[in-house]
Amino acid sequence: MLEVENVTTRFRSRRGVVHAVNGVSFRVGSSEIVGIVGESGCGKSATIRSVLGLIQPPGEIVGGRAVFDGTDLLAIPAGALRRLRGSEIGFVAQNPFGSLNPILSVAAQFHNLIVAHRGRLSRKQTRDMALQALQSVGISGPERVLDGYAHELSGGMAQRVVIGMATVLGPRLLVADEPTTALDMTIQRQILDLLQDLVRKRERSMILVTHDLGVVAQYCDRVVVMYAGKVIETGPTAQVFARPAHPYTQALLGSVPRRGEEIGILAGRVPSLIDYPPGCAFSNRCVHALDRCARIVPASRPVAGEDGWNVSCHLVSGDADPLSREEDVRAHRAG
Amino acid sequence: MPIVQVRNVSKTFYRDRGPGVRAVNDVSFSIEEGETLALIGESGSGKSTVGRLMLRLIEADDGEIVFDGHDVRRRSPEELRRLRATMQVVFQEPYESLNPRMSIGAIVGEPLEIHERGLSGRQRAARVAEMLDEVGLDPALAGRRPGALSGGQQQRVGIARALITRPRFIVLDEPTSSLDLSVQGQILRLLQDLQKRLKLTYLYISHDLSTVSYIAHRVAVMYLGQIREIGSVDDVVNRPQDPYTRALLNAFLSPDPTVRTRDTYRLSGEIPSPTQVQRGCFLYSRCPSRIEPCASTPADLRQLDPGHEVRCIRAPLSQPLVTVNPELRTFGGPPRPTQKQQA
To answer: What is the domain extent for residue B325?
Structure first.
């Protein structure tokens, strides 16, 4: 459904070029929910904004492809991408009130959206479509919501309306960037259940960007783990969570607080995205780092025998041949 | 002997027009020395207001707040100032609670200017350096400004500032909710370690069940300004008796994909406006387990087991309200990833 390959995005800043997204690749299959997870500054939002054509100066996409249904989203004109966005690809952002127009009624916003993509339709026709969309996102009393304004809605209701707008034209891919981070726990659960339903029942696909491992574990078929603008591990959620291959994935999962157990500590800091390190970006914090880790960028390799499970780490078997690895270890111990 | 006791404390906020908002409604609890009590609830539950009332950052309308035998609400301004050295607070947004124009050393040392005026500049600098070291910061950072620090380091500064007057009781108001997971772990470990070494007593305010189950000894669940349930973490998490607690636990997303937590026990609708006066149980309009008397009978906290109090009039039920997901009992993340052998 979507194949992202080697996408690279940079931002110019006064202090230098910020390497926000560095050769990111992942796939989203049909009827699949893929989670992109990582800590702040890891490039997860910049990645999907690149794919959706939402990067604005001083940001610039300098390379890569994002093939959606045979079309490279990064190569088509902005107008064509805009037409795809909203009709074929729906987007749900973190703050619902940022996506809603405060001075237009909900019905008017639905009308403008639908007419922009589907051409001249009557108010009555767009209203019917909007009603159906609001019903499908579990809003009782959709008539009243349609005639109201954004400020009259609670956070949870506003996010439902945004999801209704993102799905009213029947997109095949839904992209949600931290859709529940601003919401309370009980509402979060309802919204995520709703998104999952919309994807499963209509055979759509979804990218869910989140910092919350619970959201990934409970809702995502596959996970893409990002660090310093790179994908360091990707694979089926169950496998990656049970046997994380990358030392960063291991550290991240080890940071989850659990009663009666010590929390794992990940020392150090994410490297500067301006003076991007030459080797593995995690090597300065990695307890297993070998000499080569700081010098040579590890390629993404399949984790032994597992389909669709890849990791970028010199230490994982299948990457280096055992002999040279032995040498590395000896050099490491000696030095 | 509890170090802090809160008795029947209430607070209503008034706006220019319209009815007041009863943010805290007849709340009582106590905390033993060296203990952590967590206050958990969703936004608008009143949990942060309780913390502020205890430190008299805002004034309560009713009730008593007894700290170490003194009624905080009756202290004179001078007595309150002295008391404040022993009761401190750490806020949610570290950066916003630190003055960006002051150096780290000046920020951490500032409480000493109020509480220990006799110190010389050199003595103060020594105390600051000692404190920075205590919270895991390089004392050389004293000359830097908050903007030069990472979020985790900023929160360590906030903790150092709270600790420098050698307090005995600290209100931790969502101290890790703006931090990344790996940094959160460091701060929680630090807080736990400081508690043991300095015999600190914590009120830990949070909406996050996983950090609560990690750091707290007891937990109080708040909804619409009231405590719905209070008890040991084991009681409340493993044997929740109040429908609100159960709904909250059911909404928890386990970070273990092999644990399918199902949202089978749901409250209907959303939190009603706190300005609306409720006659019976505050949860009535949303409760999946309500019965007719709940509409008119006020639900009062009562003891179920020693140390375990609950508000629901139906508790304890011979049949559990819902089958609590058995996996919630372990209440944690995935199995600890096995660290790879050092190659």
So the answer is: 241-329
